[in-house]
Design goal:
alpha/beta; TIM Barrel; about 15% strand; binds phosphoenolpyruvate
Length: about 250
């Protein structure tokens, strides 16, 4: 039995005070469940406050939204994998569409970030997804396969089995237009076959992300090959996030 993963990407929302208030309200409603994993990706500056507000809740897991591909040094404004680990993160988003398309993150950088994450005990959640014009020109498979192959190209043997992958079509992120369960299942099938071809020996979890909400979460989660959900907008309010994590 797979344990679905519900991942909240707060993006640049909720500083320490709001993060604390969110956790208090959310955890008052959400009792630990052993049939799902809930993981929060708050802004790095709010991670400590959010964790503190969830003290005693070992069922909640934590991540950061980005790390540098380098371990340390003169990279003003960046956070490193060892720092994220030391701050209590167990996971890190790598190659989120906003990193790729707003900040110009390259495939080469995602490779470095995945490698440095594993080297320091963080699980990378490697995000892949096509833009609307790429989908319309029939390039979806080529794009997600290129991003997957590049992202894992510098992993040490065995690391692939500990990766988490997220399929997030760019045209569905923050747009209110989600992929259908069939769309998601089709791409997840391609990604899963490639993970096997690359040498994965276990079922690597593949999350779906893109305009997930309380109304569509159950259907997307039930789609073939979908092992969890990566959620932006609907994770920002305790009530809507509670509704999403209660799905399925
Ligand atoms: C995301 O940020 O990864 C995301 C999927 O956002 P949204 O749920 O708002 O589309």
């Amino acid at each position: 039995m797979r344990t679905p993963i519900f991942a909240a990407n707060w993006k640049m929302n909720h500083g320490p005070s709001e993060a604390r208030a969110f956790m208090q309200r959310f955890l008052a409603e959400y009792a630990a469940r052993d049939d799902r994993t809930v993981v929060f990706f708050p802004p790095a500056l709010a991670l400590a406050a959010a964790r503190e507000a969830a003290a005693g809740r070992a069922d909640i897991q934590w991540g950061v939204q980005n790390i540098a591909a380098e371990e340390k040094g003169a990279f003003t404004g960046e956070n490193s994998a060892p720092m994220a680990r030391d701050a209590g993160a167990a996971a890190v988003l790598v190659g989120h569409s906003e990193r790729r398309h707003v900040f110009g993150e390259t495939d080469e950088q995602t490779a470095g970030k995945c490698a440095v994450a594993f080297a320091h005990g963080l699980i990378p959640v490697l995000c892949v997804g096509e833009k609307l014009d790429e989908r319309e020109h029939g390039h979806t498979e080529a794009v997600v396969l290129r991003q997957l192959r590049a992202g894992v190209s510098r992993l040490a043997p065995g690391d692939l089995d500990r990766l988490v992958l997220a399929y997030e079509p760019v045209w569905a992120i923050g747009t209110g237009r989600n992929a259908t369960p069939d769309d998601a299942a089709a791409v997840h099938r391609v990604l899963r076959a490639e993970l096997q071809a690359l040498g994965a020996t276990v079922r690597v979890p593949i999350l779906y992300g893109g305009s997930v909400n309380a109304g569509n979460a159950a259907a997307l989660l039930a789609a073939e090959g979908v092992d969890g959900l990566l959620v932006g907008g609907a994770s920002l309010a305790p009530e809507s996030w509670h509704a999403v994590v209660s799905a399925g």
